[in-house]
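Please check this.
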Amino acid sequence: MTNYVIDPPAVTAVPVAGGGLFPVRRVFCVGRNYAEHTREMGGDPDREEPFFFTKPADALLINGADMPYPTKTKDLHHEMELVVAIGTGGHDIPEAEALNHVYGYAAGLDMTRRDLQAAAKKTGKPWDMSKGFDLSGPIGEIAPASHVGHPSAGKIELVVNSVPRQSSDLAKMIWSVPETIAYLSSLVVLAPGDLIFTGTPEGVAAVVKGDVLEGEIAGIGSVRTRIV
């Protein structure tokens, strides 16, 4: 017997390679973490402090499900990313200890209503509705770090309708995974179940209904969705 006045929301959970489910608490995303993508977005790739935005946990899209083309946009973009799953929380985590807090890794897509984002940037308003809309985070299975290790390099790529769109290497991230965890944990207390989308390489572009997106990160796994 509980005192909830409405039914509590279901727990969002991502399948784990080999079995089990990873319950998701929060989703943090790193902005502009590859130099070439920063340039293509009109920014300066100098190594400034990282910045973050968020998605709701229930924005994640799992099991290769179709993604509905969102409302209020005519310019939906893909952003292929390495996702870090936090297994042990902490505050002010030292960089040298950061990987001890990682449960595993996944391939994910930070889908973006680019026209809404551009309008928000122009007027100095928040990006929330360009990034955190429903089903805006397709994600593949989480590969436990105990099986795959902690990748600091490796190919990250996305093809759309079998045509290459994004291709880079994790080694080109401006802020590494340990640096990102250490910095983010100075801003918030990280907790088990948190996910961190670590930024996208160059090659972001628009997709339309009917497009099939297939991403892969070497040694980690894949993500797939179809825009409907």
About this structure: The first helix runs from residue 35 to 40. The mean pLDDT is 94.
